[in-house]
Amino acid sequence: MKHLKENNETYFSHLRFAGTISLQLILRGVVLGFHGIFPICEVPKSVDLKNTCELINKWNTYAKDRRGTD
Q1: Half-sphere exposure of 46 (CA within 13 A, CB side)
Q2: Which pLDDT does position 69 carry in this prediction?
Q3: For residues 7 and 32, which has the higher predicted lDDT (pLDDT)?
Q4: How many CB atoms lie within 10 A of CB 28?
Q5: Lowest mean pLDDT: which of 18-27, 30-39, 61-70?
Q6: In whole angstroms, how far apart are CA 26 and each of 4, 6, 8, 19?
């Protein structure tokens, strides 16, 4: 529970944050894997690499802000 205190989170807020990230990355991995097998199918812009990088940066900023560190 030290990790939760260090990040100013409850168990459930941490579960929601980590769960959201993991589900999003799994979904994006499936889409990109499908594209790898069937390159004729385009990757939707909402899950492309640019959008994924922007989302990861947003999550990272949120994680730093809740902790109060750089």
Answers
A1: 2
A2: 60
A3: 32
A4: 19
A5: 61-70
A6: 24, 27, 26, 10
Domain ranges of the chain: 2-67
Q: CA angle, 54 as apex, 39 and 49 as ends, to 5°? A: 10
CA distances, 3 to each of 9, 10, 14, 44, 48 (Å): 9, 10, 10, 36, 32
In 3-state terms, what secondary structure has residue 51? helix
Return d(Cα 31, Cα 68) in angstroms, integer: 34
State the pTM of this model.
Answer: 0.81
If DSSP codes are grouped into helix, strand and coil, which group holds residue 27?
A: helix
